[in-house]
């Protein structure tokens, strides 16, 4: 197939379709097509402040007007006033990132819940809700609360406290606990798993031992589990170094390291804790109730889908740790059990499983990446650019076709052709594309000097955290343009590099 010149694609240059790297004079957040309901005039909100002495506090108010820039809006406070008499409510123009819906009231179940030392709470104080930590449980239903922002410790009654929540991606985290008598999603998950354990056939130890001895030879790619506390229901990728006797294997982990942090970890495991890698899912969509594996901390952890999000992320509940987290589609796979040499695959929504025999021949040795193209036609990818002004940026697209060994045609998800209607198509080098990064949930906030990608002008731009601000906001420095801009936590992701067919996380910038 002859390579067509760029002008034959109907576009003059991608530079006219993409927007340049962040500039100080431009808006610092992605354009919004539709405002959330809580930002419309008249809507009740809670308002935070970046002002010294007020960080970590939220005040009730309502939205008055929204300027045309869509970056700021005017609000009116409910409990703060201009005058001493309290007749003229205070009005102020604030950034939209300082607003959220009013926190939900505690459910009946939460009202009965014991508040323990170390609990994160909001305390109602000086007409607002202040974030703090319970440091002491006193008599008469009182608690000592420490406020990190002011370094103060004050006593409060239980009715002056509420459990702390964060407004993240349009939802409260953690979500409101159900009322007494209602079965929570977590309880349903526990019941479902108990039922599934009854359905699964018993493991035939002798059959499993014989099969393991036959298929797990030196060099075989496998997954290994552990009964160690804190690591149950997790599988780690490894390869067999050598069989030991009739029922044990020396394995070398792919992602786990020895104490020196350099050498791959080697460990002896038995035939009950080793299995082939599960067959891959093809374009699988997940539903509430599905039993899945989520890739986190270098391993595949067993969990259940408890909620689906409009942005494509999925809420997962882990039974062993009783934790809830969000993951993107790329970090999930449908759960499968290796029983007596066959894979047991669950159907959708936790229905009864079907049995499928899977060949293990493919697990003898991994194929080299250079044998064929890495990505199939139609695969979602990210594309970089070699043009000046677009270095260190990645744009989402899908692979349309290969053009020889070195070139391919991609169609961008959000960039448009010159007519402004059709998606932009562009011929790029194969070396410029990579799969969509694994979604990593940042349980803790980013820190100074963390290397991140910032979502800006329809693309992900590589930057470094230079300053941590209040209310989950950060100043990000872009080395290529020497610009520093402000982003909210939801507009950032941890930086990862695609190297030799594997994602490498660069948590800290090399430049401090």
From TrEMBL:
SMART domains (alphabetical): Agenet
Pfam families: Agenet
Residue numbers spanned by region Disordered: 1-33, 173-197
Ranges for domain Agenet: 37-107, 113-169, 214-282, 284-340, 373-441, 444-500
Superkingdom per UniProt: Eukaryota
InterPro entries recorded: Agenet-like_dom, Agenet_dom_plant
Compositional bias per record (Acidic residues), positions renumbered to this chain: 177-197
PANTHER family: AGENET DOMAIN-CONTAINING PROTEIN, AGENET DOMAIN-CONTAINING PROTEIN-RELATED
Protein name: Agenet domain-containing protein
Protein species of origin: Capsella rubella
């Amino acid at each position: 197939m002859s390579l067509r010149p760029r002008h034959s694609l109907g576009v003059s240059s991608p530079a006219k379709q993409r927007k340049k790297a962040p500039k100080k004079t431009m808006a610092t957040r992605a354009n919004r097509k539709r405002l959330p309901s809580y930002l419309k005039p008249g809507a009740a909100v809670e308002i935070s402040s970046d002002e010294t002495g007020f960080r970590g506090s939220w005040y009730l108010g309502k939205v008055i007007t929204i300027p045309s820039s869509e970056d700021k809006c005017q609000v009116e406070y409910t409990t703060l006033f201009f005058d001493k008499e309290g007749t003229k409510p205070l009005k102020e123009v604030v950034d939209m990132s300082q607003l959220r819906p009013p926190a939900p009231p505690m459910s009946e179940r939460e009202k009965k819940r014991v508040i323990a030392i170390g609990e994160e709470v909001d305390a109602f104080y000086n007409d607002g809700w202040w974030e703090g930590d319970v440091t002491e449980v006193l008599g008469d239903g009182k608690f000592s609360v420490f406020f990190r922002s002011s370094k103060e410790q004050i006593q409060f009654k239980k009715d002056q406290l509420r459990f702390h929540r964060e407004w993240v991606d349009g939802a409260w985290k953690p979500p409101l606990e159900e009322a007494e008598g209602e079965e929570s999603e977590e309880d349903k998950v526990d019941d479902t798993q108990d039922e599934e354990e009854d359905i699964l056939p018993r493991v035939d130890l002798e059959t499993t031992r014989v099969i393991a001895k036959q298929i797990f030879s030196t060099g075989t790619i496998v997954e290994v589990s552990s009964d160690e506390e804190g690591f149950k229901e997790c599988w780690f990728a490894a390869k067999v170094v050598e069989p030991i006797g009739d029922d044990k294997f020396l394995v070398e982990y792919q992602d786990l390291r020895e104490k020196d942090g350099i050498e791959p970890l080697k460990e002896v495991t038995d035939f009950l804790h080793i299995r082939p890698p599960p067959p891959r899912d093809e374009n699988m969509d997940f539903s509430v109730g599905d039993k899945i594996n989520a890739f986190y901390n270098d391993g595949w952890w067993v969990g259940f889908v408890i909620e689906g999000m409009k942005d494509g992320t999925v809420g997962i509940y882990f039974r062993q740790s009783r934790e809830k987290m969000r993951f993107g589609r790329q970090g999930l796979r449908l759960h499968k059990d290796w029983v007596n040499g066959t894979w047991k695959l669950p159907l959708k929504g936790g229905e009864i499983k079907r049995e499928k025999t899977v060949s293990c021949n493919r697990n003898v040795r991994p194929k080299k990446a250079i044998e064929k193209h890495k990505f199939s036609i139609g695969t979602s990818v990210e594309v970089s650019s070699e043009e000046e002004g677009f270095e260190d940026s990645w744009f989402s697209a899908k692979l349309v076709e290969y053009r020889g060994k070195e070139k391919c045609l991609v169609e961008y998800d959000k960039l448009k052709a010159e007519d402004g209607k059709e998606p932009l198509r562009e011929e790029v080098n194969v070396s410029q594309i990579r799969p969509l990064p694994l979604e990593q949930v940042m349980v803790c906030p980013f820190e100074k000097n963390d290397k991140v990608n910032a979502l800006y002008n329809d693309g992900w731009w590589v930057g470094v955290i230079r300053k941590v601000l209040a209310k989950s906001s950060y100043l990000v420095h872009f080395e290529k343009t020497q610009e520093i801009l402000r982003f909210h936590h939801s507009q950032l992701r941890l930086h990862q590099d695609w190297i030799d067919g594997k994602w490498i996380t660069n948590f800290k910038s090399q430049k401090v």
